[in-house]
Design a protein that fits this description.
alpha+beta; Nucleotidyltransferase, domain 5; 2 domains; six-stranded mixed sheet; binds adenosine-5'-triphosphate; binds magnesium ion
Length: 361
């Protein structure tokens, strides 16, 4: 069922005792395209849970949610023809309010104890979400039963979760490489001063791997195998000599329709990654063009890559090659947004400057 992670308190540099003392029933939720992560403050750590962002519905009635999360994922490809498994979010944006609500209700059930009511939830949404999208997320949270719902940008939540000095008047750069999209966020004085979203992410890399393997070997592999190749032998082209790794997998021969072995290497994956990385490079160029010189030193010292895709080998080196920015890769890239949201849920005043200064240094 759901995954339970352990969390490392040193990574967060934040005394969550301070921020949790006023509240017990608070949750931070990162409603992602692929994964929904739930963080519940617990003493000086977080209890973390993860569910796939998948629901199953009747084909002719997409608002009739039959199963959510792991259960819905198991139905993928194995269901009768009138049932389909879908993702309520596409490219980071809520596509179906009813389906996203079902996902959020499940997330809240998982995060709270039996019989407990959720007081406050904070939901991380992509930073470029429109007011309409933000209101929809808030509405969904309230309908799902929370007393207090706050929607904050995932980029800001990531910075808070990582314990970065968000209150200072220096710049912070967050690069969030998700499944459906990549957000580039500049933070200063506790707020977002610039954001640019590239509607490309890890999912697109997987699709490119499938295409390249088909072109090269006349073999069609499954999207899951493509994702495994990305995770196991993935590489971003850069100036350093990083090791070329290989992975064997099985696909379906286009010519014979029989199973056929293929060997996927880091070079093939780096080719699949390149169109996405190029878009990210173009976008980051634009962000830096707009950046005030007052913030460049802060960005140099405080750049953090988060999101599952930030774990791609060579990403750090490539960003350093292109931009001379020594970006750090988060050591909890897939949970840091939910952790930051949970900190704000426990103490919404965490977003106010004087509290930030007191509690987050
Ligand atoms: N070690 C790894 N190397 C490269 N990619 C990885 C690795 N681990 C996970 N991923 C990819 O990270 C993506 C999921 O990341 P994450 O959970 O941050 O996305 P999300 O929050 O659900 O999506 P979004 O932010 O776009 O809504 C997937 O594409 C997954 O394949
Ligand atoms: Mg995300």
């Amino acid at each position: 069922m759901m995954g339970l992670f352990s969390s490392n308190k040193d990574e967060n540099k934040i005394d969550t005792n301070k921020v949790t003392k006023n509240n017990v029933n608070s949750l931070g939720i990162d409603l992602g395209t692929l994964n929904t992560v739930i963080a519940k403050p617990s003493g000086d750590k977080f209890d973390l849970y993860q569910i796939p962002s998948v629901v199953s519905v009747k084909k002719n009635d997409p608002s009739s949610v039959l199963a959510v999360g792991e259960e819905a994922k198991l139905m993928l490809g194995r269901t009768p023809e009138d049932i389909v498994a879908l993702r309520p979010l596409k490219k980071g944006v809520i596509e179906s309010v009813v389906q996203a609500q079902a996902l959020l209700i499940r997330a809240m059930e998982i995060g709270k104890k039996e019989g407990e009511k959720v007081g406050r939830i904070v939901i991380g949404v992509p930073g470029d979400s429109s007011e309409v999208e933000k209101n929809a997320a808030e509405e969904i949270g309230r309908k799902a039963g929370a007393d207090f719902v706050l929607v904050i940008s995932e980029g800001l939540a990531a910075a808070i979760g990582a314990g970065l000095p968000i209150a200072e008047p220096n710049g912070i750069l967050i690069i969030d490489v998700g499944a459906g999209s990549t957000d580039l966020v500049i933070i200063s004085l506790g707020g977002i001063t610039d954001i640019q979203t590239v509607r490309w992410g890890g999912d697109d890399i997987d699709n490119n791997i499938v295409k390249l393997v088909k072109d090269k070997f006349d073999v069609e592999i499954g999207i899951h195998e493509a994702e495994q190749a990305k995770i196991n032998v993935g590489l971003v082209k850069n100036s350093k000599d990083l090791e070329i790794l290989t992975m064997e997998t099985i696909g379906k021969s286009v010519k014979t329709n029989r199973p056929e072995k293929v060997v996927i290497d880091s070079e093939l994956v780096s080719e699949a990654v390149e169109p996405i990385i190029s878009e990210i490079v173009v976008a980051l160029n634009q962000v830096l063009e707009r950046l005030s010189p007052e913030l460049i030193a802060g960005v140099y010292h405080n750049s953090l890559a988060v999101g599952g895709g930030s774990q791609l080998r060579g990403l750090k080196e490539r960003i350093c090659d292109e931009f001379k920015i020594p970006v750090k890769i988060s050591n909890d890239p897939m949970t840091v947004v939910a952790k930051g949201a949970a900190i704000v849920a426990a103490e919404p005043r965490a977003l106010e400057p004087e509290v930030r200064l007191a509690g987050f240094k």
